[in-house]
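Thread: "does anyone have the structure for this chain?"

Original post by V.I.:
We have the sequence but no experimental structure in hand. Need at least a predicted one for the grant figures.
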Amino acid sequence: MSAGLAKIKRRISSIESTKKITNAMELVSSVKLKRRRKAMDNTIEYLKLMSDIISDCFKGLDEKGNHLSRLLKPCATGEGILYLVITSNMGLCGGYNYNVIKYLNSVIKKGDEIMMIGTKGLIKFNNDSNYNINTDEVDVLDNFDFGKLTRLERKLEEIYREGKYTSIQLIYTKYVNSLTFKPQTVQILPVINMVDEQKAGEKKIEFPPIYAPNRNEVFKLLVPQYLNTLLFEKFEEAMVCEEGSRRNAMENATDNADDLQSELTLTFNKARQAAITNSIIEIMSGQAAEKE
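Reply from O.Q.:
Generated one for you, tokens below.
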């Protein structure tokens, strides 16, 4: 009986140590999540304002002589789609990477290519010859900053101009709320016509903006910045989802450790009480035997 009690006690001690680790990781993820959420919200607002300006430029855009015109239409010579897929570099984030890979498998077709972001996604496909994997940008999330995305955006422009793909799509995880994260696809290239059809019935602006020197020049200036901002916002949103998933996973692990610890403590107390009761019975039996 004493050996069994010692074993239960060691398990309780081990679970307590694990609980401290998961609780600490939950706190760290909560801090990172708060910081990422703030950056994401600011970027979303900035992207919305930029989208409104570009959408207005689209209305009177003259594609003649516009060196960006090839970025506005699907490539006629292209075959397949290039998917830019954002996964994580670290684990312990619940079903975050699994959901992204599952979604990717549901949309990818023969002839498509994957540009993988994050080592966890690369590990999943590394030994699978059924997929064309580009690993040039797998480390973008390391020391992540806007400069890396500027370089990535230029590279994507060059790839699209080569005419190999019909479009370049980004698969990322959309933040719905603190418990729900949904993998989605957003088109990076060609730049879609962002004129909102719902605005067609809205009242005409009495004093529309004046573009100097003209809409074409403003559009040429804003498109690269828009693509950079679009990538930055989606990457930030994906990292918010990653930290949210990790925080939830660590919270669940801590709660499970609490439950398991409570069960083992109850089992330990019952076993100890049974051992004490048996000892008392043995003593009483011994005394009764001596009296006889």
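V.I.: this helps a lot. The first helix runs from residue 2 to 59.
O.Q.: and Residues 178 and 244 are 6 Å apart (CA to CA).
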